[in-house]
Here is the input.
Amino acid sequence: MRDPEAPESLAGLAERIRRGEGAADEELFRRFHEKVFVMALVRTRDREAARDVAQETMLAVLTGVRQGRLLEPEKLAGYVCGTARNLVHEHLRANRPRPGLTGADPPVVRGADEELEEAERSFLVHRVLRSLTSPDRAVLVLTLVDGLAPAEIAGRLGLQPEAVRQRKSRALRRARALLEQLSRPTRERHLAVRGT
Here is the structure.
C-alpha cells in the first residue's frame, strides 16, 4: 500500500489541486486540517482562533497551489506547515496588547517560572498527542476541543458511535498514563527528555 505522506503521493495531490479537482481539495482538508488546528491551538491557546487559522491555512494553501506558488509539489506538507505558522504569527501579532492605548490593560509581564511552566505544558501536550494513533487523536481533539458528542464525531469520521466511545476511552487512558509518567520528577525522565 502506498504511503499517503510519501513525497510522490503529496506531489500527486498538489498536481490534482492545481488542476482544480474537488476531491483533491477534500483530501487536503482530511490530511492536514486536524494537524493545523492542533498546532494553532497549542500556540494560541484559543479554540476559535485555532479554527480560524486552520480554515485560513487550507484556503491559502489551495489558492497558492492553484496559482503555482508551490515550486516543489513533493514538499506540500512543508508548505502547509509554513503557511499555518505564518498565519499563527499574524494572529498573535494582531492580538498582542499594545501599551499606551487608552483603556487598554497594561501588558502582562510574565516571569521565567511562568514561561517554563507554559513550555512544559506545551511539550507534554505534543508528546501525548504524538503518542496516539491518528484516529484516536482525532476523536480526542473533536471531543475535548470541539465539544462534539460521539454521534457527531462518528458522522465526521465515518465510524460507528460505539467505536468512537471506545477510541475516546482508550485515548484518554493512554493520555492520562503518559501524562502521569511524564509528570514524575525522576532523574531518568529528565535525562530522557533532554535526549529527545
